[in-house]
Hints:
Blueprint: H1 6-20, H2 36-44, E1 54-67, E2 70-77, E3 80-87, H3 88-91, H4 93-100, E4 107-116, E5 122-133, H5 149-154, H6 156-162, H7 164-186, E6 190-191, E7 197-198, E8 210-213, E9 218-222, H8 227-235, E10 240-248, E11 260-269, H9 273-292, E12 296-299, E13 302-305, E14 312-314, H10 315-323, H11 333-342, H12 353-364, E15 373-379, E16 388-389, E17 392-403, E18 406-413, H13 418-433, H14 444-451, E19 457-463, H15 464-472
Parallel strand pairs: 3-5, 6-10, 14-15
Antiparallel strand pairs: 1-2, 1-4, 2-3, 4-5, 7-9, 8-9, 10-11, 11-19, 12-13, 15-17, 16-17, 17-18, 18-19
Helix pairs in contact: 6-7, 7-9, 10-12, 11-12, 13-14
Amino acid sequence: MENYSEQEIIRRQKLARLRELGVEPYGEKYDVTHYAADILGRFDSSEDIPEGQQVALSGRLITVRAHGKASFANIQDESGRIQIYARQDDIGEREYEIFELLDIGDIIGLTGEVFRTRRGEITVAVKIFRPLVKALRPLPEKWHGLTNVDLRYRQRYLDLIVNPDVKKVFILRSKLVQEIRNYLNNQGFLEVETPMMHSIAGGASARPFITHHNTLDMNLYLRIATELHLKRLIVGGMDKVYELGRIFRNEGISTKHNPEFTSVEIYQAQADYQDMMHLTEDLIAAVAQKVLNTQTVTYMEQELNLTPPWPRLTMIEAIRKYVNVDFDEISTNQEAQDIARQKGLDVKKNATRGELMNEMFEEYVEKHLFQPTFIVDYPIEVSPLAKRKTDDLTMTYRFEAFMAGSEIANAFTELNDPVDQRERFEQQVAKREAGDEEAQMLDEDFVLALEYGMPPTGGLGIGIDRLIMMLTDSPSIRDVILFPTMRPRE
């Protein structure tokens, strides 16, 4: 038998008493006519809910204040909270005894009349009520709410009950995601669905989760990106496609990383990374304007101006600006290794100029990019799916968008040369065989698709969770994921 607290014992005793009185503590549905916010808003403004209007609503008891044979309480439904007033003279002695057996956290249905108290608070005078759910555990202490961060993430249902601002974030998230879809649909993009289990983990540099298919007796990988399947659709003649859904990467957990996250990947034939830059800044600004009614948002007490156009810097220019190192003057791997060591980087054996350029950028530049900024032209070593620049074959037509020091988008002019793509994959396989678990695998079927011909294409991926963080002023990715990945309790 579980060791119950004193409060839990008392609640179970009340549960038994309710059943003694012939009351089912886990009742049937209650027919609701109004929500709390409807009553509060309409009574105050147009008065189309007049004094004495009968309403039926249901909610969870949040506070109870007994005064002899009358009680004030607050109930909370999906829309908000409203005060109710239960009096023995109105509902009868037996019913009032039942009301007194209710606890904070219980769910009830009630019918009553709307009135305004002498203090001016809009209230529902209870005429009929019915217990719907007896809560056997108490809610967190009402004045402080649920403040334990670990507990908030583990028991999100409690977080949503006692911290109203949390629910607002997830309502905003839903609206923002819906508006992303609306924007892309209005631009002529077609939403598609591709497999979540892949025989090859491709489309990104990341360690995959592995599962096993019993009937086929083969390992499968939870997708680390949707890229390679979506580009197959471009080959097939679907010129503007996107997929918004879950991605899985077997990586660490932090304020910016969750192993299961949401992205939108967008591909357009007869487009390049310049087109994807315009799409990125226009989409994010338009979505913010539509849902938040502004293109200037506050994140961590600083303003983010989302209004296009966003600044553009090449990776080399950004490193020159923030690290005072000019990779235009560094031509060999040895020179790059020497300067990287001078700057305090841990230089791996055989590290190339391009790899060290990217490491220096990630270590010393990203944190400075608070305002929305495009960093363009990435080394070929870290961009195996992007097209080479025609004027510098060591670099690619690739950009990443940054905001508040975090990458929120990644895009290429897509590599559509099957011979070059095979060579890049083979270089990735060599890295993988040398111990790099995040290096990409060789996807023969994708190369085969390219051999049939993929038109010039621009591709873009946006991290939805990080973007939502910025737009809702949330400090951690766990604050915008309803059920983030957590280590099991000991």
